[in-house]
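Risk mitigation, structural track. In case the binding assays with flavin-adenine dinucleotide fail to produce interpretable data, a predicted complex structure has been prepared as a fallback.
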Amino acid sequence: MQMKLSTHELQGQVSGSLWTPDDPAYEQTRRGWNLNINHHPALILAANNTQDIAAGVRFARQNGLAIAVQSTGHGIHTPADDSLLILTSRMSGVQVDVAAHTARVEAGVIWQQVLDAATPHGLAPLVGTSPHVGVVGYSLGGGIGWMARRYGLAADSVRWVELVTADGVLRRASPTENNDLFWGLRGGGGSFGVVTALEIDLYPVATVYGGYMTYPAPLISEALRFYRDWVKIAPDEITSSIAIIKAPNLPQIPEAMRGQKLFIFRAVFVGDEAAGAATIQPWLDWQTPTGSTFRQMPFADIGTVANDPVDPQATHYSNEMLDELSDEAMEIIVRRATDSASPLMVSELRHAGGAISGAHAHPSATGNREAQFYLQMAGQTPTPEMRAAADAYIQDYKRELRPYLRGGVYLNFLRGAEAHARVRDAYSPESYQRLVALKAKYDPDNMFRFGYPLVEAEPAK
Ligand SMILES: Cc1cc2nc3c(=O)[nH]c(=O)nc-3n(C[C@H](O)[C@H](O)[C@H](O)COP(=O)(O)OP(=O)(O)OC[C@H]3O[C@@H](n4cnc5c(N)ncnc54)[C@H](O)[C@@H]3O)c2cc1C
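Fallback model:
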């Protein structure tokens, strides 16, 4: 769709920047972290504040534009073509209330900014593996981080949310205000409006015992079996994952590692060094790792546990959930993860349970809380052909695994066509219907159609 927008009036209402395809800044800003998404919005608004967002939403409504929101671009899955794309990264304010153990976070804040503000006070947020991911997108999708088994998902620690809904009105959602929206926003994704700020809980955790250890290719099968047994005795203070990695032939990978296969065990223990070391000692008793970074570390260093890439990447990924690791499921996972012909780079299992599945003071839309393992499979896919190949491989991998799967998925780890086709599987049937009703109430015209679709109609193009 080609359209000529008259942006003059909107320019007079916002203090932020407006860019059309004719502006040089448009080209520099339209894409986010995931380079697989190469979208061409009709208009970009780099918002400075809540008023800019409200004006942008009203303008989009008057001009029949759908609205997309981009903070970092780690989570975009549907190209926001012909839309109004609202960039939030300038809204980067973080206010920590040290006494209350909370942080008020603006729309564009990334976890690193919360770490910088909170850790000097001995307080820690429920960050995930990458401190460069946005707080809002991560938390709306659920948010499984390094303290999830101890303190729950990030969505469980959201105290209130402020957002501009499709009618251009600023609303506050909390346990006492717009409680239906508060329920749906936490786990329902960004389908109900543009979040301008939210408040999250912080936890009194100054240091953790954590890191990763690696085992060589010949031990991969045995290490996975060991992990299955070890998680049965792992206390809720420890959140862990294993990854089976095929290092790609890329210049940024040390030469000796390229093409190599590897088993990585990662974990974070909330507690003191002696207790943390005792928890992972069974691994050392089992086999000496080829390398280990486990240590008592300041929480500020939490990003070193996974060392996720910071620079933009073209990645494609998917996920499934399992209630248990049967011998048959493990055989498939190891075979697929080490298959030399596979276009995938990593198969990762995160151990869930603990506080994720426990009782929560304020129920939310987040589903599949009883799942024990999140399985994520990912590949580097810089070309459409590579993306198609990775997708086809993933679907085949899943077909083989199907008898052992729970049937649920995790919203934050869905990409491509599955980000539309599998959304129902992220919820119980009751929660899904409730989300669809909520969407019809707050966004009847589906203006926010680039998040995870919560409408019975055809998904976004
Ligand atoms: C390297 C990497 C590591 C990750 N690690 C984890 C992890 O450990 N645990 C986990 O749970 N997830 C993880 N994720 C997934 C991540 O949480 C999601 O991709 C999330 O959507 C990213 O949010 P963002 O704001 O950074 O991205 P963006 O692409 O900017 O936003 C993603 C979506 O969130 C919504 N959104 C963002 N801001 C707003 C807003 N202000 N108002 C309304 N909607 C909004 C929109 O629908 C938007 O399309 C990881 C992803 C990557 C790429």
